[in-house]
Amino acid sequence: MAGNWKMYKTPAETHAFFEAFKPKVSDAAHCDIVICPPFPDLHAAVKETADSNVAIGAQNLHWGREGAVTGEVSGHMLQAVGCDYVIIAHSERRQYFGETEVDVVRKTQAALEYDLKPIICVGERLEERESGRTEEVLADMFDGGIAPLAAEQFAKIVIAYEPVWAIGTGKTATPQIAADAHRFIRSRAAATFGEKAAEAVRILYGGSVKPDNVKTLMAEEEIDGALVGGASLDPASFAAIVKF
Ligand code: PGA
């Protein structure tokens, strides 16, 4: 269960969040819990969650180790600050910053090089779904961004299916729609990496996951977890999602 804070919260707000959140989930052993704050909050988040069952991730990384690349943050730095995860190619990165499948491959390889678990996001836009192109889009994203990985790299990634039309809109994909997409992604994974690897890869659903819809989504066998934006900002609501 992963929370993506996007561009919300200061270090002081990060501290307040974890003070309230940690005791609420301290007995949750059924899943991995991850929070992905903005870069300036990572240090505070790692400190707050030391000796807890909550792991910390970043929302993006550059593929280099260091260099003259103004405004960027490397996997090497994220590892040094204590991150365990990193989100790659969230739809907002694709939409506003032009990230492509080429970026997915190089960022994923860089993340793995620094022992960060990549959470790779894929998902179709509304017009793509409405024109019946969902599977084509998912196939292109898989083939371009994930299929080029080596088998041992694929074994370490998490995939997040996030239909763009469901993100921040309050329009959740029905469990059926999400499960169909997950099944398609898994079949693609099976074709490239084999049945066993495809069965083992975790596929999270993201897009307006809330405490009141998480149970029906998680009831789908194909859905292994959730990537949560808005509802991860509040300790009580994200705790309720974790403990669905
Ligand atoms: P949302 O965001 O839960 O606010 O829809 C999900 C995401 O963008 O990861």
Describe this entry's structure for a reader:
With 244 residues, this protein is an alpha/beta fold. It has 12 helices and 8 strands. An 8-stranded parallel β-barrel has the order 1-2-3-4-5-6-7-8, surrounded by 4 helices. Helix 11 links the parallel strand 7 and strand 8. Helix 5 packs across helix 7 (134-146). It is globular, with a radius of gyration of 17 Å. The N and C termini lie close together (10 Å). The mean pLDDT is 97.
Explain briefly what this protein structure is.
Helices cover 45% and strands 14% of the residues. It contains twelve helices and eight strands.
Highlighted features:
244 residues; single chain; eight-stranded parallel barrel; 45% helix; globular; alpha/beta; 12 helices; binds 2-phosphoglycolic acid
List the topology elements.
Blueprint: E1 2-4, H1 11-25, E2 33-36, H2 42-49, E3 54-58, H3 75-81, E4 85-88, H4 91-97, H5 101-113, E5 117-122, H6 126-130, H7 134-146, H8 151-154, E6 158-161, H9 175-193, H10 195-200, E7 202-206, H11 214-218, E8 225-228, H12 235-242
Parallel strand pairs: 1-2, 1-8, 2-3, 3-4, 4-5, 5-6, 6-7, 7-8
Helix pairs in contact: 1-2, 1-12, 5-7, 7-9
The structure holds 2-phosphoglycolic acid.
